[in-house]
Write a structure and sequence with these properties.
By secondary structure, this protein is mostly beta strands. It has strands at 16-21, 25-30, 32-39, 42-47, 57-64, 69-70, 85-89, 91-92, 95-96, 99-107. The strands form 3 sheets. Strands 2-1-10-5-6 form a 5-stranded antiparallel beta sheet, with no helix packed on it. A hairpin with a 2-residue loop joins strand 8 and strand 9 (95-96). It is globular and about 45 Å long. The protein starts with 15 loop residues before the first strand and ends with a strand.
Amino acid sequence: NGTGPVTLTKQSAAKAWCHITDAASLSGSFGISSASDIVTGNYDISFTSSFSDAFYAPAGNTSTATFATNAFTNRTEAAAKTTSLYEWSTSSANTAYDLRFTTLSIHGDRA
C-alpha cells in the first residue's frame, strides 16, 4: 500500500552513512559508532555492527578547508579495511590535507 515502514534487511540500501566535520566529529550518522583523526589526512570510522566481510563498498566525497573537492577513498594496502573499521586518506596534488567535511555511505551485507 506504500504507507508501511520499509524493511532494509537484505536490500540494497546503505547500511551505514555519516557526515564528518573538522577533527573527525560526527555531525550525523547511522550505523557508525565513532570517527577518528589518525594523522594529517588519515581518518577512520568504526561501525556499530560488523559487515559480513570486508568487501563492502564505501562512497562519498571530501572537502578541505579551501573547499577543493578531493576523492576521499584514497586507500593504500597499509590502510585498515576490516568488517568493523574503514580507514582512508585525503589529499590534493599528492599532499595530505585534513578534511573540512566528509559525507560517506557504505553498502554491503551486515553480519
